[in-house]
């Protein structure tokens, strides 16, 4: 038999767990907008402003000085030390042995999941939620249960008893993202305390995605020290550094560095050798000159971050006022992150609605269903831009509703 007579193998496929991953519905809406001139994009989670000059300059200087080599898996020592100081100031004593540098938040989430979950493990996630958190454990063969936030008079709220009941003794990991993408919900200190005590009792890992911790407006009575606080309540305020708590953070949001791919993990020192192995087999390290720029961000960026939060709060309030005046729109002011997650006529089929919005009036918002079935009925609007652009978006929304006879 010659080689050409061999049977043709079946079509090559990825593993079942990978094939079952949900494609991004935000991307699906963006694709529907291809060819539409002058789309106003509020669908992605990033600002329309470039990273600050002092950070770009630090990267340029590092490149000019030849920072083009591999680094330690866990990050360069000065950045780990700078991060340990930054975290210590915000959340209490933290050693550089508790800090690892990652290639942004999404890589940190993958590393955290790889550290603690495997095939068949039970994971619980609080939803609606940015899809990556729910999909990442599935890549590893874990089974993800969700506990939905409820929407009511006071905005998005957690049913604590429901969450504690879902955290059964055989649960391996809890995934909680606060401030939350997409809802802007912020977990209160008391809720964190109760969840931490419960997880301690049952040996459940908490993976806390706190990438929006600085985008916290402290004006919703979340906790006693809320007003004027520089961060949202964090599990790091309550947990010892050597217990089953892994906090994921990023340079993307507080310093507008989405394209740089730089983040960090705070975790027990006992995990670091194994975490270093995982970093080696994923990315080996974050780019050296990007890490140098990270030092500038954490050491010199406090004023920048505080001004950013002030601007975001003004944008949030502006959009809340403008959208609240649109008949049929229902929203509550969210205490954190950079999104409004609201209901409007047609949102019960949010994917179709968002495709129609971009096709017909060039308004780019994300469908609530992209954040899990619990997000259906809502749309997400990222308000990290100037108010003139927000006004132009609201005007398009009104035009769309008028065309569809909604008012
Ligand atoms: C909840 C949440 N976690 C993590 C990330 C990861 O961001 P990055 O990978 O840019 O750090 C995002 C990005 O939008 C997010 O919304």
Topology:
Elements: H1 16-19, H2 25-32, E1 40-41, H3 53-64, H4 77-91, E2 99-102, H5 104-116, E3 122-127, H6 131-139, E4 143-148, E5 150-152, E6 155-157, H7 160-166, E7 171-177, H8 189-202, E8 205-209, H9 235-238, E9 245-250, E10 263-266, H10 272-282, H11 288-300, H12 302-324, E11 339-342, H13 350-361, E12 363-364, E13 366-367, E14 379-382, H14 387-403
Parallel strand pairs: 1-12, 3-4, 3-7, 7-8, 8-9
Antiparallel strand pairs: 2-10, 5-6, 9-10, 11-14, 13-14
Helix pairs in contact: 2-13, 3-11, 4-11, 5-6, 5-10, 12-14
**Number of helix segments?**
14
Mean pLDDT: 94
Shape: globular
Based on helices, strands and strand pairing, what is the structural class? alpha/beta
**Beta-strand segment tally:** 14
Distance between the termini: 74 Å
CATH class of the largest domain: Alpha Beta
Order of helices and strands: HHEHHEHEHEEEHEHEHEEHHHEHEEEH
Taking all Cα atoms into account, the compactness measure Rg is: 22 Å
Family: Belongs to the class-I pyridoxal-phosphate-dependent aminotransferase family.
Domain Aminotransferase class I/classII large: 50-397
Cofactor: pyridoxal 5'-phosphate
Protein name: Aminotransferase
């Amino acid at each position: 038999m010659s080689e050409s007579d061999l049977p043709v193998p079946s079509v090559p496929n990825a593993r079942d767990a990978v094939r079952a991953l949900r494609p991004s519905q935000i991307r699906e809406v963006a694709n529907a907008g291809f060819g539409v001139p002058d789309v106003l994009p509020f669908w992605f989670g990033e600002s329309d402003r470039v990273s600050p000059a002092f950070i770009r300059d630090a990267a340029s200087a590092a490149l000019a000085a030849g920072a083009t080599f591999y680094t330690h898996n866990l990050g360069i020592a000065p950045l780990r030390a700078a991060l340990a100081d930054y975290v210590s100031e915000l959340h209490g004593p933290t050693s550089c042995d508790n800090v690892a540098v990652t290639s942004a938040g999404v890589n940190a989430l993958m590393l955290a999941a790889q550290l603690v979950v495997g095939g068949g493990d039970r994971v619980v996630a609080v939803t609606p939620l940015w899809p990556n958190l729910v999909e990442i454990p599935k890549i590893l063969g874990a089974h993800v249960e969700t506990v939905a936030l409820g929407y009511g008079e006071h905005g998005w709220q957690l049913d604590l008893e429901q969450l504690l009941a879902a955290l059964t003794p055989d649960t391996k990991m809890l995934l909680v993202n606060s401030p939350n993408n997409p809802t802007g919900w912020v977990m209160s200190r008391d809720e964190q305390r109760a969840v931490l005590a419960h997880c301690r009792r049952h040996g459940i890992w908490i993976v806390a995605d706190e990438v929006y911790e600085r985008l916290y407006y402290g004006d919703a009575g979340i906790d006693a020290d809320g007003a004027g606080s520089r961060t949202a309540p964090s599990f790091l305020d309550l947990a010892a550094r050597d217990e089953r708590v892994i906090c994921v953070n990023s340079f993307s949001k507080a310093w507008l560095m989405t394209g740089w791919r730089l983040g960090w993990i705070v975790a027990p020192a006992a995990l670091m050798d194994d975490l270093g192995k995982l970093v080696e087999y994923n990315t080996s390290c974050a780019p050296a000159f990007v890490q140098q720029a990270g030092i500038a961000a954490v050491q010199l960026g406090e004023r920048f971050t505080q001004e950013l939060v002030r601007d975001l709060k003004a944008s949030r309030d502006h959009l809340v006022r403008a959208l609240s005046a649109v008949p049929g729109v229902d929203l509550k002011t969210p205490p954190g992150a950079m999104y409004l997650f609201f209901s409007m006529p047609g949102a019960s089929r949010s994917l179709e609605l968002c495709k129609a919005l971009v096709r017909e009036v060039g308004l780019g918002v994300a469908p609530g269903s992209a954040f899990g079935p619990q997000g259906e009925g809502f749309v997400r609007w990222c308000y990290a831009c100037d108010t003139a652009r927000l006004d132009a978006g609201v005007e398009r929304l009104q035009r769309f509703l008028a065309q569809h006879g909604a008012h």
